[in-house]
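TICKET: design request
STATUS: open
ATTACHED STRUCTURE:
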């Protein structure tokens, strides 16, 4: 029997339903690092043949893990350990710097690019007057092919070229023009998905998600980035060490 498959051997002396035993063992293997984000799981048939269980039992175990965000099931390609990203809270890092160390390619799909007047919230965050325009970038953030966040970034219109968004990443572009983001404040808040967010993140209206609001500052303490990111909870894991 395959070494990883052997980790899932149900305990006949345990009265816990077998599908819950399987789900618990898979979750434990992920938490211990024996299975990593993107690793393929055995198929339902492999579990049936290895442990002499019914297909329905294997399917229930996978459904349980899919519901709590441990795995992704892709019709035609198999079942995989879901990505889980742990942003370095004390450090300022880009989306790419967060995703790629986990073995995923960071991708952004540009949904909207709009020059407009600022809202009251944006004027306060970016220290602008109502006569100063902003540029709003709406991007779908992906780890590989998995959409994990919908991001609205607002910057003073003077920062971006009139021709549109550069092909390079936003943070790389800001660095190239001598306006790097060197400090940022972030706030985290639970939110409920509305129709526009649910549409892009393939979730139901009313489902919970995480809203991360960031204000980025240049070396001269000028705020030039105000970003709101609606993030799928199951792909993010925040940890912060506290000291007395």
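STATUS: resolved
RESOLUTION: sequence designed for all positions
ATTACHED SEQUENCE:
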């Amino acid at each position: 029997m395959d070494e990883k498959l052997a980790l899932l051997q149900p305990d006949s002396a345990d009265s816990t339903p077998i599908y819950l035993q399987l789900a618990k063992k898979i979750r434990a293997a992920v938490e211990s690092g024996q299975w990593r984000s993107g690793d393929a799981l055995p198929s339902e048939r492999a579990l049936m043949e290895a442990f002499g269980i019914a297909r329905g039992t294997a399917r229930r175990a996978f459904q349980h893990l899919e519901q709590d965000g441990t795995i992704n099931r892709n019709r035609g390609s198999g079942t995989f350990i879901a990505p889980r990203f742990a942003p370095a809270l004390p450090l300022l890092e880009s989306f790419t710097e967060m995703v790629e160390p986990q073995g995923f390619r960071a991708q952004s799909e540009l949904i909207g690019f709009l020059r407009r007047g600022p809202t009251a919230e944006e004027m306060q965050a970016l220290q602008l007057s109502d006569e100063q325009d902003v540029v709003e970038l709406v991007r779908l953030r992906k780890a590989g092919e998995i959409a994990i966040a919908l991001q609205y970034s607002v910057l003073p219109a003077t920062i971006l070229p009139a021709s549109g968004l550069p092909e390079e990443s936003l943070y790389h572009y800001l660095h190239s023009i001598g306006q790097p983001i060197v400090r940022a404040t972030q706030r985290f808040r639970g939110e409920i998905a509305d129709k526009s967010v649910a549409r892009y993140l393939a979730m139901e209206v009313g489902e919970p998600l995480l809203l991360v609001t960031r204000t980025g500052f240049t070396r001269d303490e000028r705020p030039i980035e105000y970003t709101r990111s609606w993030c799928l909870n199951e792909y993010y894991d925040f940890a912060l060490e506290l000291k007395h």
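CLOSING REMARK: The chain has a mean pLDDT of 82. The two ends are 49 Å apart (CA to CA).
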